[in-house]
Amino acid sequence: MYSRAVRRGRVPRRDADPVPCLLELALLHPDPDDMDWLVPTSPQEVMTRLLRGMHDEVSASQRRVGSAVAAVEWYAGLGRQVRPAAPAAEGPAIRVLDGLARIQAAMDEATQACTAEVLTVQPGGIRREAELSEGLHRALALRGRGVRMRDLYTHVARHGQGLLNYLELMGDAVEARTLDEVIDRLILFDRTVAFIPANTDRTMALELRHPAIVEYLVTVFDRLWRLAIPLKAPLPDTGIEGISHREQSIAALLAEGHQDAVIAERLGISVRTCRAHIARLSETLGAASRTQLGVRIAQAGLDGPPPSAASPSLSVPDQGSRTAR
């Protein structure tokens, strides 16, 4: 259209309607003698305008490059003045990993460097197949190098077939134990680097290499490990007829004043499942309300640690022959 306007001197306005960019770029403009026609801007003027714009862009880019070079030289000079506190290969003591891709890349790097031991805490109840598959390649690489792994889960994880299949695949390379509740996710490689979540949806993580922090986390893990029950061992009997181990844990958390949603999150179960257990607790203890349930929990000794086998029998109120040993 522009070529035709240059050859003919002008073109009807209606012919240029399908290409409004010609007017927007000022390649065509209305004929002052007849507004129904458009006349072209001379090619020489258009070229001059374009070259001027390109020149301005190049000049701005050169200024930005100059500023960047000056900044790099300035910071490099600071680096020569300050002696590093530790070898550069060790990396920063705390590094924020933003995004799943960066987290996985850092985990892969730590896996490749690991030679002896991996410790993990995996909260959240039954592990989803996607979670297990995401880390399977790292676990298999570790097993292939003879690295030993110890994993902590909640008791609820025992009911996940995916976890059982994973542990069977890993064989003796992995030892797993469970607790009523565990801390948030934690992964430790060779007691030198740890990974913990940095936000609630776990799209950010912290990579920790400070020896004092890592040693503290190792101590926390070891103490939880001693309290945990091997995955292949049965959960201890509560000693109270009609009340399961999970219901005993729920009763203790209810006695502490926690809401259903908090209890469910800490034990790794759904709120619906938690409320079903609370309903069975109420039925077993003969409680008609939450207030009465709290009283019955205290009377049955469920508001604290489980009683030992040598403890005297505790009668469950209004339940006839049911007793708590």
Task: Write structural notes for this entry.
Keywords: DNA-binding. This is DNA-binding CsgD family transcriptional regulator. It comes from Streptomyces paradoxus. InterPro entries: Sig_transdc_resp-reg_C-effctor (IPR016032), TrmB-like (IPR051797), Tscrpt_reg_LuxR_C (IPR000792), WH-like_DNA-bd_sf (IPR036388). This protein folds into three domains: 44 residues, no CATH class; 137 residues, Endonuclease Chain A (Endonuclease, Chain A), CATH 3.30.870.10; 56 residues, Winged helix-like DNA-binding domain superfamily/Winged helix DNA-binding domain (Arc Repressor Mutant, subunit A), CATH 1.10.10. The protein is 46% helix and 18% strand. It contains twelve helices and 13 strands. It has an eight-stranded mixed β-sheet with strand order 4-10-9-8-5-6-7-11, with helices on both faces. A three-stranded antiparallel β-sheet has the order 1-3-2. Strands 12-13 form a two-stranded antiparallel ribbon. Helix 4 runs parallel beside helix 6 and helix 10 packs across helix 11. The C terminus is likely disordered.
